[in-house]
Design a protein that fits this description.
heterodimer, A: alpha+beta, 6-stranded mixed β-sheet, 3 helices, about 30% helix, B: mainly alpha, 434 Repressor (Amino-terminal Domain), 2 domains, about 70% helix
Chain lengths: ~130, ~180
């Protein structure tokens, strides 16, 4: 199977921020997220068009998933950062409306977290699925 | 490799009381499948987006929108035009969630590819068999005209039906022809 291996960022206390963000989603949005994550896990990287969007302008290592609906949910992630050809790491959850991010510094925080993982690969864990 | 999203059946059982979850999953799956299949069918035919747009009577910018899983405003009319451009037929049906699990687990390039009618070996074989049968039928019709209707119905069905049925009907057709010859 040619899909990606999925990881989540851990903060300095070992807390999985993306897991917490996922728990706060309505179940229908979690379902949309799960379908896209299954496609990331199962399929060759370029098969599904628009699945992994990015890199985001001005942030060459940060990608997003688009989860539709009234609230535009945007899980932020990066390739690698240990093995850029096989791994994706969820850095944080955010929302986007008219190119404005909530939290406003989401992309900067995501890049900082990516750097933390590069410095210390222990700052991530296998992705945690929230049902 | 650890996989977190491979157990859709178990997930749907665990969320059985959550109708929103399964319907949102199905809708996302529909959008993901249609967009990906349009891209896969276009690549299978070695069409550019411009060529597909021309075949379907659309603008290239629309094909670009359709080939994105985040597009969700599908109409049957649009899909019908694309089906004709690909020379395949559009099948819209209500299905069970069991089918969702099976189709999700099968999802991939090979499962999404569909031959155009003129590239489908099924019809090439049938055309060949049809020509053979016709060649043999000419004398039979003149000697045993009462069988002509049966044979013609068999050939018609073998062209329209699925491969398993077709093989059976084709075989039956040959038996009728042979039987007629030796009757």
């Amino acid at each position: 199977m040619a899909g990606w291996r999925l990881y989540d960022y851990l903060d300095h206390r070992g807390v999985n921020d993306f897991e917490g963000w996922s728990k706060g989603l309505e179940s229908k949005y979690r379902a949309m997220l799960h379908r896209k994550l299954k496609a990331l896990e199962d399929t060759e990287p370029d098969l599904v068009p628009g699945l992994l969007e990015g890199p985001i302008r001005g942030h060459p290592h940060i990608y997003k998933l688009k989860i539709g609906g009234k609230i535009r949910l945007r899980p932020l992630l990066c390739k690698g950062p240990i093995d850029n050809n096989k791994e994706l790491t969820f850095l944080m959850g955010a929302t986007e409306r008219d190119y404005k991010w909530d939290p406003p510094n989401a992309l900067v925080v995501a890049e900082a977290r990516r750097q933390e993982i590069i410095s210390n690969p222990e700052r991530r864990c296998n992705h945690v699925k929230v049902l | 490799m650890s996989k977190f999203y491979s157990s859709l059946r178990e997930d749907l059982i665990r969320t059985a009381n959550d109708k929103d979850y399964r319907h949102a999953y199905a809708e996302e799956s529909l959008n993901l499948t249609i967009a990906t299949q349009i891209k896969v069918l276009r690549e299978q035919r070695e069409f550019t987006q411009e060529r597909l747009a021309k075949e379907a009577g659309m603008k290239q910018s629309m094909i670009s929108r359709y080939e994105n899983i985040n597009y969700s405003s599908w109409s049957i009319n649009t899909l019908r035009k694309l089906a004709e451009a690909f020379d395949v037929f559009l099948d819209v049906r209500f299905r069970s969630f069991r089918d969702l699990v099976e189709s999700t687990n099968r999802f991939g390039r090979e499962a999404l590819q569909v031959p155009a009618f003129t590239e489908d070996p099924f019809f090439q074989e049938e055309q060949s068999l049809g020509m053979q049968a016709q060649a043999q039928l000419i004398p039979i019709f003149s000697v045993f005209p009462q069988h002509a209707g049966i044979v013609q119905r068999g050939m018609l069905r073998s062209t329209e039906a699925g491969s398993a049925t077709s093989a059976a009907v084709g075989s039956q057709t040959r038996q009728i022809i042979t039987g007629s010859i030796y009757a």
